[in-house]
Structures are given as structure tokens and as C-alpha cells.
Fold:
Amino acid sequence: MSALPARKRRLQKPAAGRSGRPPREFAGEVDARILDAARRIFLERGLAGASIDEIAALARAGKPSIYARFADKEALFAAVVMRNVAAAIERFGSKVPAGATIDERLVNVGARILHWCLTSNIDLMRVAISEARRFPDLANNVHHMARQRGEEAVGRLLSEVAQSDPLGVVPAFAPEQLATTARFFIDVVVFPLITRALFGDNIESLCAEIEPHVARAVAFFLAACRHSGFN
Structure:
């Protein structure tokens, strides 16, 4: 056999096992595997107890693939939380709240948000709080990022709901006031049950309270908006 064919074989062999970042069409699938694995490990071990090695093994991804996407473990945790928030916002924003009146539509909005928070997000919130002493900047940044995205989404929903009701003309629903109104909606309607969950109340019992709690809280919220008491 001549030297030339042998040389060609040597040059061709590495191509079959090419390393590095995956092609663009597979990058999203790798991202999802990494974030899914990180969420599971963070929930099981906490932030301090989690390791990139364990996440990489569970995700079937190399550590270089993780570090190419996330600077460190804290950045990976923040990405896990924000993906959760983004998924919820996309789901809520794509569906017009049901109801014949603004009261019913806002009760529907509040109940959907609370069901998601209590069943899909509370464990990640608990991890962030439990690690706040070790990673204060991370806990603070995650809280503010999630809160900001949530307020923006709730503001858009409030604007859409108010446009179909005479209440839409009151100052609380003016474009320049919507951010503040959305913040109060979250504080009055959502946070009371979330706070109880974070302090250990039974999630199943809290879920059973959602509808009556939201109905009372929305009535209070709308009464304040009608009397311009919030802004």
C-alpha cells in the first residue's frame, strides 16, 4: 500500500470524532439538557452542595460545554430560575384570561399565577433563600430579575384586561402607572400565599385556598384602583 493512501487515512480519522461545541441545530437540545440536569441537582443538593461535575454527568455534556455557556455555578442557577420564569410568562401571555367581568378575569390571572408558583417554582425559591447567606448577590439578583420579569408580564395582562372595561380609564391603569399597579397586584394577590409556602405551609392546603384568597384579594385591589388608592 502506498504512503499517500495511509496519509489520507490518518488525516480523515479525526473527523469522525470531532470535539467542541455541537452544531447550531443541536445547541438548543444541549442547553435544555444542561438546565434540566442543573435544576434537578440544585433541588437535591442545594447550590453549595451541587457540583458542575455531577451536573455534566447527568446532562451527558462535558464541563467545557457548560462553562462555554455559563461562567460559574451561580450563573447556571440564575439561568435555571429565569428559564422557569420565562416559560411561565410565555404560557400566561399566550392565553387571554377568561371571565365575563374584570373581576373574574383578574381572579383567573391571579389563580393561574399562584398555581404555577406553588406547584412549579416554590422549590427553586426555597433554594435561593436557603443559600442567601453564602451567595447574597446571587439571591438578590435572582429575586430582582424574576420580580421584574413578573411585573412586566402582569402589567401587560392588566392592560389587556382593563381595555375591555370602564375601569381602564382610571389613573391606576394609565400606561405610566401600570408598573406600580402590577407591583401592588403581585403584593396583594400573590405574595401572601407564597410567603406562607416559603415558611413551610403545606402546598396542597395552600392550593386549596387559592380561589377564595384570590377572590378576596382582587376585590380589595380593584376597590383601591377605583378610588385611586394605589397610585
Q: What stands out?
A: The two ends are 87 Å apart (CA to CA). The longest helix spans residues 102-130.
